[in-house]
Specification:
Layout (H helix, E strand, L loop, with lengths): L17 E2 L2 H13 L4 E6 L5 H13 L2 E6 L19 H9 L5 E3 L3 H4 L18 H4 L3 H15 L4 E5 L3 H13 L5 E5 L19 H7 L1 H14 L4 H14 L3 E9 L12 E9 L2 E9 L8
Parallel strand pairs: 1-4, 2-3, 2-5, 3-4, 5-6
Antiparallel strand pairs: 7-8, 8-9
Length: 299
């Protein structure tokens, strides 16, 4: 049976009702697609901010129907990480989505994603190696597994991800291509605060003094872009990024300039990416900046 057309957007949108059943949301998404509706999907862990909402708005602009998932995925958190305290403001998230053209908000229980007795995980090599893969062992297996499960429950035409988690987007694209999943993965630009800090749900953890210092991550990336354009080596740029962050009290996990697609050594005639990760107090933040090819530059 064909799905009905979406209600028009008005100034008084109805309350967004979450859907917990993956069987139900899958059936409704497939019915919408069978009726010729293009479906966009925005997977999130909730605690929605302007970066998430930019993805939702992009999906609404490009698709007939929009689905958003809110699921804090336990398998991508390691021992001692912040799974238990990760913010879960569901009422506020639903309120943020209320004025947007969202048809489904998929809010599954953990047992719906990982049924009792589940014993399967997806392991991606290649772009999952190094950086976040080293600092957070098992993290990307959890990411790949949950994204695959969410894409089964919400079999959309296109899924939208933010560029802030650059390595994660490469892992997701690799998994989708390797497993032949019939969906487009679209990566959208990072949304930033006025001072340049990349928007993240974890920014809420920052004490005021740490929040002021956190801008060092984006400052290090601005420095990286200038030095890349000036022809400096990736090794020299990485050392400078580290210095910028350490000078503001950031405990640096890594700073690197690498090939934007493979995360191997950067070369001049291909796009590169500057990657940084660091800790301020109990809060860990990551960020990145794409760097254009620089054919003809000295290194």
């Amino acid at each position: 049976m064909a799905a009905p057309p979406p209600a028009p957007v008005t100034s008084a949108m109805p309350t967004v009702q979450p859907v917990a059943d993956p069987v139900r949301v899958r059936a409704e998404v497939l019915a919408a697609r069978a009726a010729g509706r293009r479906v966009g999907f925005v997977p999130t862990m909730g605690a929605l901010h302007a970066g998430h909402l930019a993805l939702v708005d992009r999906a609404a602009a490009e698709c007939d129907e929009v689905a958003v998932s809110i699921f804090v995925n336990p398998t991508q958190f390691g021992p001692g990480e912040d799974y238990e305290r990760y913010p879960r403001p569901l009422a506020a998230d639903l309120a943020a989505l209320r004025s947007r053209r969202v048809r489904w908000v998929f809010v599954p229980a953990v047992e719906a994603i990982y049924p009792p007795g589940n014993a399967t995980r997806i392991v991606v090599e290649g772009p999952a190696r190094g950086y976040e893969g080293d600092v957070r062992p098992g993290h990307f297996s959890g990411v790949a597994t949950v994204v695959h499960r969410l894409l089964q429950a919400v079999p959309s035409d296109v899924a939208y991800f933010g560029a802030k988690d650059w390595q994660q987007t490469l892992v997701v694209k690799r998994m989708v291509e390797d497993l032949g999943l019939p969906i487009e993965i679209l990566v959208c630009p990072t949304v930033r605060e006025g001072d340049g800090l990349a928007m993240s749900s974890r920014n809420a953890y920052l004490a005021p003094a740490d929040r002021r210092r956190a801008v060092a991550l984006s400052e290090s990336l601005t420095t990286a872009a200038a030095r890349w354009s000036a022809g400096r080596s990736a090794t020299e740029i990485a050392a400078t990024m580290r210095e910028v962050m350490e000078s503001r009290g950031v405990v640096v996990d890594y700073a690197a300039v690498v090939d934007a697609e493979s995360l191997e050594d950067a070369v001049d005639d291909r796009p590169a990416v500057a990657l940084v990760a660091g800790r301020l107090g109990v809060t860990r933040l990551i960020d990145n900046r794409l760097l254009p090819p620089r054919v003809g530059s000295a290194r």
